[in-house]
Amino acid sequence: MTAALRTARRADAAGPIGRAMTVLGCLGARPSPLSLAEIARRTGLPKTTVHRLLAALQAQGAVRRTPAGYVLGEAVRRWSDGAETAHRDALRHLLTPHVTELYEATRLPASLAVLDGDSVVHLVSLYPRSMADQAPHRAARVPAARTALGRLLLAYRPGPGEPEPELLRIRRDGIAFLGGGPSGGPAEVAVPVAARPDRGMVALGLAGRPGRLIDPGAEGLLRRTALEARLTLRRHRAALP
């Protein structure tokens, strides 16, 4: 059974509200507009059903039609943005101590991040003054494919179809590496912290100059910190929006 068919059966079991939420979830999972045919393919719902749902959602401001396809409307975005901000603030509050401990133990830039569309958003970034030019700004949106954190988050992002081979390997190994390359940029390593079906993955990463970061000591500290952070989230699960 395909992922789309499983999604469609769950939506049918939940009735009209379930089908509407499935369509909204499909649109919310992609930063770019989707056509009616693409929404039907991704959700497994009949095109006639999707067309009827989109018309009803559009009338309520939950969906907006553009020349390129359908996107979430402002009514949903306002609610979603507020809920997402509260969730990220809670993550930042609970996990900043773990990021701080990792930074103090390694003296390397340490970051906690989540995925937003195809970009990485850094919730916490700590770094030495000497490496400030390499550290991500918390408000900055960085293309996910350019960083180890982003590649790891992409590997764990749910969706129809199989990820590309590199992302499958990252998911299998539970860790992502990014070398320095010819530009002389920092080497990076990232590991998962935890995931919620409605919120996606949270990841923890380190960055440093090639030859310094990718060693058993730093990797072990990163994995151990991620495990401790995961346990913290489990203990405080009820407090997360």
Automatic annotation (TrEMBL):
Annotated GO MF terms: DNA binding; DNA-binding transcription factor activity
SMART domains (UniProt xref): HTH_ICLR (SM00346)
InterPro entries the record matches: GAF-like_dom_sf, HTH_MetabolicPath_Reg, Tscrpt_reg_IclR_C, Tscrpt_reg_IclR_N, WH-like_DNA-bd_sf, WH_DNA-bd_sf
Gene Ontology terms: biological process: negative regulation of DNA-templated transcription
Chain ranges of the HTH iclR-type domain: 14-74
Keyword Transcription listed: yes
Domain IclR-ED: 77-241
Keywords in alphabetical order: DNA-binding, Transcription, Transcription regulation
Pfam families per the UniProt record, alphabetical: HTH_IclR, IclR_C
PANTHER family (alphabetical): HELIX-TURN-HELIX TRANSCRIPTIONAL REGULATOR, ICLR FAMILY (PTHR30136), TRANSCRIPTIONAL REGULATOR (PTHR30136:SF34)
Name this polypeptide is given: DNA-binding IclR family transcriptional regulator
Taxonomic classification: Bacteria, Bacillati, Actinomycetota, Actinomycetes, Streptosporangiales
